[in-house]
Input
Amino acid sequence: MSLIELTEEQKAIVEAVREFVDREVIPVANEMEHAGEYPERIVAGMGGWACSG
Output
C-alpha cells in the first residue's frame, strides 16, 4: 500500500520512466559503470523530463 495516491498523470510519468530505464539504462548500466563512462546518450534522452535536472 502506498502512503500517497498518485494522479493518473503521475502514474503515466512513472510508467514512462520505468519503460525508458528498462529499454535504455539497464542494458548498458553495468558496462558503463565498469568503464567509467558518463551516460551522455541516456541523459540526452531524458532531456525533456523535469526529473532530469
